[in-house]
Structure formats: C-alpha cells, structure tokens
Amino acid sequence: MKKEFPKGFLWGGATAANQFEGGWKEGGKGISVSDCARSHLDVDVQDYKKQNEVTTKDIEEALKTDDEVYYPKRHGSNFYYHYKEDIALLGEMGFKVFRLSIAWSRIFPNGDDLQPNEEGLRFYDAVFDECAKYHIEPLVTISHYEPPINLLLNYDGWYSREVIDMFVRYVKVIVDRYQHKVKYWLTFNEVDSMIRHPYTTGALIEDRFPGKNFTEVIFQAMHHQFVASALATKIIHESIPDAKVGCMLTKLTYYPYTCKPKDVLKAQQDMRSTYCYSDTQVFGEYPAYLLAKFKNEGLNIKMTEEDLRVMKEYPVDFVSFSYYSSSCVAADDQGLKKTAANTNIAIKNPYIPSSDWGWQIDPIGLRISLVDLYDRYRKPLFIVENGLGAVDELVNGTVDDQYRIDYFEAHFKEMYNAIVEDGVDLMGYTSWGCIDLVSESTKQMSKRYGFIYVDADDLGQGSYRRYKKKSFNWYKHIIETNGRCL
Ligand code: BG6
Q: How far, CA to CA in Å, does 73 sit from each of 109, 286, 444, 459, 477?
C-alpha cells in the first residue's frame, strides 16, 4: 500500500488522568473515585465483575489509607512529575494530537466547591503549553472515570441532579481557562460504560440505593450525563468558535456466532444496546428502542422538557470511540467457550487470535465498526482508543514489541481501506496508553500498551524511568510519512 492518509490526519496517542497522571494528593487535588479503586491481583484478569466490584466498605477502607496500601491509580505513571519529558517524547514521535483527561478533582477537589483550585489549573496550563511547543493539539476528555469521591459520599453520584450544575461549573472554568489552548473536546469517556462499571463512570455503588431498582438508578444517572454533555457542548461552542466536541463510545462490535436467525437477532439487539447512547448524543434525542426499554422494564427516568430541549439543541460534532476487539454472541451461549472483550465477556471466535488478556484481535472488525458508525451517523469519526495490552520485557533498555507493530499495522491498513474504499470520514487516531499506564479493568501496570515503557510494576515498585520500545520509531515513521510506508 503506497497511498497516504488524508492530509491533516490527526495521528497521536491517548491517556487518562485516572490511570496516568498520579500526584493524587499534590497541588491541592481532591480524591477521585479511581483513587479509591483497589487492584485485585488475586482475581482472574478475565473476571471483570469481580475486578470491578466496589462496596461502600471498600471506599471507607480506601479513605483511611495513605500510601501504605498500594492503590495503582493514585500513582498511574507519575505523569504529574514527568510531563515535560513525556510530551517531549511524544513530540519526537511527531504526534499531531495527544488525548488526555483533566482530573475533575484537581480543579474542584470535592466537586461541590464554589471556587476552583488555581494550582490544578496551572498544572494543565503547563501541560498544554508543553504540547504547543511541539505543535501537538490536545484532545481533552472532560470526564474519564474521575468524579470526586465526595460526590459519591454526599450526593449519590450522577444519580443526583445537582451534579449536573457542579459539572457545568467545572466545564465553564476549564473552557474559559483553556479556550486558546484546546480545540478538541470529548465530554464523557465511554458514556455507555456506566452499565458495566457504574462506580467509575457514575460514582454509583449499589449498596447505597437500598430498595431501589439499580438499573433505574444507572439510567437516571446516564440521563443526567446526557444533559450535562449537551450543556458542555453549548459552553464550548459559545466560547471557542472553531471547537469540535465529540461523544465517546465503547465500540463493542458484535458478530452472530452462527447464521441462525436467533443469533443474528441477538447480535443486532446487543449492537443497539451500545448504539442507543451514541444515537442519543448524535441525534439529540432518545431512540425509540431505548424509550421502549424504559417502558417495558418499568424504568421511571425523570426528564424535564428543558432537558430534552437542551439535548436536542446541542448534539455532538463528531463521534469518537474505542475499539479493541469484536465479540461473538448467540441466543443460547451455554457450553460455548468464552473470553474477555473490554469489560465484557464474549464467545470465543475460532477464526481470530487473542491477546495475553484474552481480548480477540480483529483488524477487519475495526473497518466494519468504522463503516457501521459512519453509515449510521454521517459525522466525522475519531478512533480515540485502540491498541494491544501485552506483557513486555525490557531488555538492554528497550522492548522488542514486534507483536505490537504487527497489531497496529493490520489495524492501520483497515482504517485506510475504510477511508479510501468505504468513504469513511476519519479525523484521526490516538492509540491507547501511548506511554504505559495502569490498566482500567485489572489495574495492572504489567498490561502495557505503550510505545514508551515505564519502569514500574503492579505494586508501584520501580524507577518510573521511560524507555523507547521498538514500536516508538516505527510509529514515528508512520506519522512522518502519513501512513505512506504501510
Ligand atoms: C477503555 C477505557 O475501555 O479501555 C480505558 O476508556 C481503558 O480507560 C482501556 O484503559 C483499555 O482497557 P484496560 O482494561 O486494558 O485498561
């Protein structure tokens, strides 16, 4: 393949404060939900339910501890202390864009504060200035699993309507402050993920809602996020004329395990259960099938006329998504071999390989995802997460990660096909965890995604020094040639 990607294609990488930044108590930062998420190294890495189980008691325990117990996300990869060196490395690779999130609790330590934390604001000023030095556009996620823990303890998290106002205050402050530095924004990371991990996405714990239908609680909280997202889009557009705001979806691409009509129907239903969230944010209204679900399951979601008006008036400009793997589903999956697929469990697909963590590797699935999303929305798309979580071995100051290069190469070729043959409008690509960081699902550092190795283990032992892997120069070359070398 000798043709290049579209001019101005945004090549880069992605991170999130909760897994990367560290400095959990530095510079006036408050405690976030992720700072209280303990790792479960004793639990099977494919058992997401157990990995993500959190009770109020766990939070009370977490809040009693300082650094005598290791909570991986409190430290991430210590970007807080390494940001200059890290951004210089991204600059050396030629990044056009760097996706990062702002930790809400660094700006409003408790979420309900009336005044922002100036030191927190200064930190991101410094980060964005550093990006500017290397002509890297920041792509900012406003909320990536980082609600301040106070919102869970004293407000019932996103179930509480009041949290919308607090979020709006936070958005106004960051948009006002960074209006000349940030043009690309995402409102909520994987807005759909509240169903799978309500704690990190919605600051919700089931034991805090005795006697209530927890599914109703989750959808009510999600409704509040949809309203908050629309209000954030309004604020951004009013302050930054050329800004682009995206929604962010977990692209769980489902295949029917067989051509039995029941399996095909199951795949369609599962696919819609993911699309219903992006449908809401792109079309500005709830799709009929989600409203039908509310009705059929007796979920009483409170929404005002004003909520619905705001959602309709401020839809997103583009659709961003994460894609790691496709999943096979069947109407009756008993007895079929299962495997992990990004906070999900799927039937094992016999035709494709799997990663060290069981996530199935399917580059063509990325092309299928791009086509499906573009046909559905006709809005520009942005792949803001993709990559291979693998066990890397540091030998003589580097990692020979040819397996990662192979993974990227296969995915990039399918992106190219989607753009050129299928007519998809793809704005850019940011690989997940471009510098190694703590995994979301298993909270392990040893599940590595980066072009840059961070010398730290699952217990936070190590120098945190950065090392270039073999994929570093490979990706640099891809960016330099805009994909011509593929
Ligand atoms: C996405 C999340 O679902 O997947 C990231 O937005 C996460 O936060 C990524 O890190 C990869 O998952 P994991 O569990 O391998 O870290």
A: 16, 34, 9, 11, 32
> pTM above the 0.80 mark?
yes
**Residue count (the chain):** 486
Which distant-in-sequence residues (6+ apart) come within 8 Å of 203 by Cβ? 33, 147, 149, 151, 152, 157, 158, 163
Backbone angles phi, psi at 17, to 5 degrees: -55, -40
pLDDT, one tens digit per residue, over 150-206 is 999 999 999 999 999 999 999 999 999 999 999 999 999 999 999 999 999 999 999
| Alpha helices, H only, 284-316 | 288-296, 305-313
Instruction: Write out the two tokens for 54.
Output: 């959190």
Residue among 137, 146, 190, 414 flagged as catalytic:
190
User: What residue has token string 């210590």?
Assistant: 78
Q: How far apart are CA 441 and CA 431, in angstroms?
A: 17
Closest CA to 284 of 306, 309, 321, 303: 309
Ligand 1: residue whose CA is nearest its atom 12: 440
Q: Which atom of ligand 1 is nearest to the CA of 145?
A: 8
Whether the complex's predicted ipTM is more than 0.95 is answered with yes
45-75 confidence digits (pLDDT tens):
778 778 888 999 999 999 999 988 999 999 9
Q: In whole angstroms, what is the distance from residue 332 CA to residue 337 CA?
A: 12
Which residues, 6 or more positions from 281, have their beta carbon under 8 angstroms from its beta carbon?
191, 226, 229, 247, 315, 316
